């Protein structure tokens, strides 16, 4: 067994999800490389110690620069707010560490390009946590498309709908709410939610050529948790955009945190000449599939319960009919990353691939401001 | 065009549903025989006149015996409470009239046998309004089974769930509530609801050999609308039974009027060696279908929207995707009955076929009392 | 009973749907005014005679100008291809006839404005067949919004997805296929399908201020049925647009005839501060409803089976749990129109109201060409 | 932190599920007691060593008697075939070990009674792995019932449908197939699947008084993996039964391994006077709920996505909208068991409680043979 000594920076929601993945992968997957929870890093010593104890980290650090200096760390996992991704990633690359970075890659394209340059120059394995690719039903969608079952693609549509920021007295900034502060998050739903939709979309359907977007900030001012002042809200609360893919298909994307009744409803649907596919995160173990080749009187959308041993990743878990949950997508990403180390191959989505998503996000935000169609430079 | 002069006895819920079917069939189906609404018959003259005017009946009668004497009536449609079916049907047969009788055929097997004898002796066309056979999705289920797509059948299950009699202060008897009075209805959910389930079941899956039932009357006494007295409730409020079909398959049937949240939820599911089928009345235009012959990783229940021109009866209505409603099943039954007249053939379910359902109902009620398995004599 | 003598021009899909509505309304609704099928009009004498016989029209005409000259006709129903709407409607208005016109109102805004001027000058009752407003679940959505149950609206989204024109060898033009010929239809999915979505949207959510659209014609040339030549396809096969409503809500609309697996999937969803609503045409008797005021641990989308007597229009039909179909929306429109005659009030959507939809469609098509946001002039 | 040193006997499907629970509970739950994976025990040394290494067990044993003798083991987890439960449990109780036993408790009631006597005499904490009680949606059903939201219960129905034994050439006996061998399993679907349904039912709805069952073995003979001979199949392939609860409600239960299209479809529905509840294992994170107290026109089945922090156990996992999987139910059971140790209280279902399920199973099997109603002795 080869060990991969991991140092995780940040101990919030993603810190937990990643830690669980590292701890669990070896129980279910047979891969020579196995992660070791070497160090947890966070600014608040008490908190990071509690976190380390809960998850079994061997040590703690309160300064990420210290963590990078340690020889016993092979890989850095960046789970911080978005505004730290760039600086840490570049330093980690220089320190020769592998990097697993939370999404979105960066605050903007300029940062992303520096990060890509840094990891490529350093030659370190790198990956971004666009975890939804590895929900088995989503991976299966990719397989079906690659097998040619859909034929020519006409339409792509995706949504990511939430409703947790409707209350006007919800503050912005700080623990748990940094996603509402543009200085920490870079953008609102575009970078947080649409970035997921875009990552999946370009993986499944190829490049996006151009976009036309509409953005809105419904609540213009919110109390800021750090400053204690009412401050202008700089993020986009909602964003919808039209897009044209390089393959000629048309797309509609939409995200909001004001869709009453939806908690984390990420959906996509793809309509092809021969077949169509639909999926949503609220019932993530089901793939909807319509095949025009079925006997014509028996055509109908199939609800495929993606829990059989022949479905992606599912031979590793339980028995048919028994579903897995959200966090398993992170386990799968770690498994694939470890497998990539075994084989000496990069594993998607790399920083470079995630940069494409960043570029589309930036084009979307620009179009939202200008009202014009914006070409995506790739 | 050959006319079929119809006299309808009863002007309640079923009087309306049948009248609509006679009035509508010619607009959508191309059949030489066409019904003419010749006479409506009911005991209350004012009411029957209002009904006749609303639906375009040419005349009214207040005594069904008078109706049977008329030479201008070809067919009698019996929409009365169950306790009148037998007497009217036998008299109508003797008068040489065709008969379309509401379900269940009779109050009990003894009555049903007399009715069958009468129509067969008279040689008059006869049919019972088990209308759900002719919901397109149900007819399609029959086609799929007849094509052998399901293979050997292992399981049949059916339910008919309602919730309209939970309130204890709901009275029994009289207009709209005769179904709660055992003297008018013969039985409760068994004859009213399970009879539908049984008719469909033996049509789709063949004879039932034996049954073991459980019945219950949750509300023991109710005010009677006619007598004005609190009277014992004689009907079964709920009934569930196990059954064995002649083909070796096992079945579970259940019906109740105490299933909070269900208005008219008639469901059935059939599990075969190769495929399974499920349907329910609340979304009656959909057929669920699972085919084991699909590529194994793509197997899933298909939701077939039964609205295409190649689906049963649907070439007569609108365009794909546009659904029809409950009452269309009656239109289909009239269309098939008229087509039978054209071809000189009996149309299912005849009185004799409906007698089999009556026998199963009686066996169920008997088993509910005795607690023992009861063989169905056919 | 007061009669409304109707003359119908056109005997295709809509001719049948409207005829059925006129024939049926009196059986289920109690309104003093009752339609009489006075005359059917069409260019092909043989066809129009067969149609008249099937539906019970008293007479036929082969020249619509003749029909307008008849004194025994109160109302003209225009079921022709779109390119005849304007000329017939203006002439009918001048002849003092009431007008019931198929949607979309006209080929373009210029025509629509002339039509509105004509009916308003003549002072004749007028209505456009945007029938989906009167699907009970849709009418109920309107009630819930008017009751303030949703509160401030944040999002509106609607789709109309079909898949019947994917085959490249499908011709354009002529009977059944005039919707593919821009000269007969005016536009493609925008006027045919999105017009429905827009009509419902502005009824439910108020005016649209501006739009940004993307249109596409996937199959560029098709054989034309009339000319026998391969001709350029002038319609939009697909159209998606972003919109801003006057009330501050954001919207996404999409329509296509290339969405494999969907026959007539008209959907809409509205997200408000307090509650959300969703509906689709494939299961048109269900309304999805999410209410934030529910106990917080018990919140969930409710699937309301819109078949109870207290639901809009449903007291007129059957009993709870038994659904109605597509064509009933037309019956409801006739019922409301007749009720309007009783009360001497205009009934929505009038020509003037339908002109607003036409203006939005035209703005959408213009934006689809220019790529810029287009303001809707109202 | 207090440790609970666990020795697990058996390393199959359940050995994995339990191991995962022990390893994971401390990362998500704050309980002073924490499990330590002290020893894994199995007859095949090579296999048990591989298992121990994969899951981090500190040691292995190949003789369960040796395991019981060890002083460093606090609790024994029995994951063997059913025919070993009794002997091991009695010995473990005598050795003063806590016991966590896989379901069903025993091969039959006689064994079960000895086991209950043993643990009660020894005074050791004991529990049976009826894990589905602790799926959050199921736990929530219990809460809603206990809060009185359903009122008087009229109906209970449950199914457990699978399709994995339809092929006649599937052998019986040995690794992975011992569930088909009556000598190892005790019974077929009754003990394996209906036992789950019964455990949940009596937890939610109280005692069952009597049952009437029908059982069937569709494939009469199968090759036996151990003997290499074709042997008679002694298990029940399918079983359905009617039941009456002590609270007056009626029930229907059904299980089979011949329901094509269903992998592990455990469903239940409860109809009460005021509200109804439904759940199924294929979408285990959703609870369907119908409340008669809703505004009458807005009543509908709610699909509650049981992923909010206020839902049972869900504050321990991710954020609203992100679902957990099958194995989490085991984690919850361990958490509750540890909490019981903290508080010195027994945790359901104890051996005694599981004995009630065993008695009902035995009554069901007896009724299946005799055809008569059988009273449950409790």
Brief overview:
Chain A has 378 residues and is α/β, with parallel strands linked by helices. Chain A has two domains: 2-131, NAD(P)-binding Rossmann-like Domain (Rossmann fold), CATH 3.40.50.720; 132-375, Dihydrodipicolinate Reductase, domain 2 (2-Layer Sandwich), CATH 3.30.360. Chain A contains ten helices and 17 strands.
Main sheet record of chain A:
9 strands, mixed
- The helicity of chain A comes to 25-40%
User: Class of the largest domain in chain A, according to the CATH hierarchy?
Assistant: Alpha Beta
Low-confidence stretches of chain A are: none
Question: Treating each run of at least 4 consecutive H or I residues as one helix, how many helices of chain A?
Answer: 10
CATH architecture of the largest domain in chain A: 2-Layer Sandwich
CATH topology name of the largest domain in chain A, in short, is Dihydrodipicolinate Reductase, domain 2
Largest interface: A-C, 38 and 38 residues
Output mean pLDDT of chain A.
97
* Count of individual domains of chain A: 2
Order of helices and strands of chain A: EHEHEHEHEHEHEHHEEEEEEEEEHHE
């Amino acid at each position: 067994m080869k060990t991969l000594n991991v140092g995780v920076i940040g101990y919030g929601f993603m810190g937990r999800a990643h830690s669980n993945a590292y701890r669990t992968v070896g129980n279910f997957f047979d891969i020579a490389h196995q992660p070791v929870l070497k160090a947890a890093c966070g600014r608040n010593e008490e908190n990071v110690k509690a976190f380390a104890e809960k998850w079994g980290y061997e040590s703690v650090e309160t300064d990420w620069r210290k963590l990078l200096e340690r020889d016993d760390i092979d890989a850095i996992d960046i789970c911080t707010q978005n505004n730290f991704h760039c600086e840490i990633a570049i330093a980690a690359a220089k320190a020769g560490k592998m990097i697993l970075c939370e999404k979105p890659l960066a605050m903007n394209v300029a940062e992303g390009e520096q990060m890509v340059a840094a990891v490529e120059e350093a030659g370190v394995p790198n990956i971004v946590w666009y975890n939804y690719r590895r929900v088995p039903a989503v991976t299966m969608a990719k397989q079906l498309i690659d097998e040619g079952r859909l034929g020519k693609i006409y339409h792509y549509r995706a949504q990511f709908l939430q409703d947790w920021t409707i209350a006007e007295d919800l503050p912005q900034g700080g623990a748990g709410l940094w996603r509402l502060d543009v200085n920490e998050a870079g953008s609102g739903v575009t970078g947080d939610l649409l970035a997921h939709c875009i990552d999946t979309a370009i993986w499944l359907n190829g490049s996006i050529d151009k976009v036309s977007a509409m953005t809105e900030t419904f609540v213009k001012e919110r109390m800021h948790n750090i400053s204690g002042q009412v401050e202008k809200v700089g993020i986009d609360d909602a964003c919808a955009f039209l897009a044209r893919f390089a393959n000629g298909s048309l797309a509609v994307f939409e995200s909001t945190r004001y869709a009453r009744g939806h908690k984390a409803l990420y959906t996509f649907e793809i309509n092809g000449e021969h077949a169509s596919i639909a999926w949503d995160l609220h019932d993530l173990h089901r793939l909807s599939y319509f095949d025009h080749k079925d006997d014509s009187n028996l055509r109908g959308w199939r609800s495929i319960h993606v829990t059989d041993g022949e479905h992606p990743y599912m031979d590793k878990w339980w028995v048919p009919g028994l579903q897995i949950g959200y966090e398993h997508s992170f386990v799968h990403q770690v498994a694939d990353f470890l497998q990539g180390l075994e084989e000496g191959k990069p594993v998607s989505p790399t920083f470079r691939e995630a940069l494409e998503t960043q570029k589309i996000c930036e084009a979307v935000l620009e179009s939202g401001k200008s009202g014009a169609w914006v070409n995506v430079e790739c």
